[in-house]
Predict the 3D structure of the following.
Amino acid sequence: MMSLRSIHLRKLLKILFSPENKQTAALRSDIRDEIAREAEGSSGGGDFYASFWSDAKAHAIGVSDLHRSIEERIAANAGREGLYPRLRDGFLLWWNEGRRFTNAPFHPGSTQKARFLFPGVNDAIVKVEGVLSLRDGNGIEHYVYPYFSPEPVLTESAARLGLWLLTSSLPGLPPEEIRILDVIRGATYSVDRYPLRGNEEEEFRSLYVAALDRWDKLRREYG
């Protein structure tokens, strides 16, 4: 199965809302990765962002300090020194702003993940993983889905599509407690601030199908 047909929501939003030249580059990279996986019989390498997000989650529940964690990550792998500090600063910008309104500790919430069979797109699965679930002092759970990419910036249009998919794939959660966090910019999007308009599924499907068609055409160039 091509990776664009089984893809994390954050990566899909990045691809769909990139300028045409960068989308083409991303699709070609995806194709080369897919060819390499097929040749090696491997599922591919680890997620560059997973270690950062694990540290951010630990910071949110008071288990560790994100500044110290990122210093240790960079010491272990210098390849992280460009992006990890930007992710750290953006996360803390958002987190510290929210913490101004309470001194009560947060606790881990329930684990949330989903594999969303995209309606009307054959064999397409969008993965929702890495949700930061936090329970506040009043027992209310909050759910934060991360968008890590430096570019493109998460726009209102992209966020609305992401929120539609999150609320559709996690129907047991109260929509008003779901957020998408553009980590580097420390900006969040929610349905109360950016209400869904009712056409998100159609809009998302149109963009997704167009990207899949481009993927197929580009794939033929590789034999």
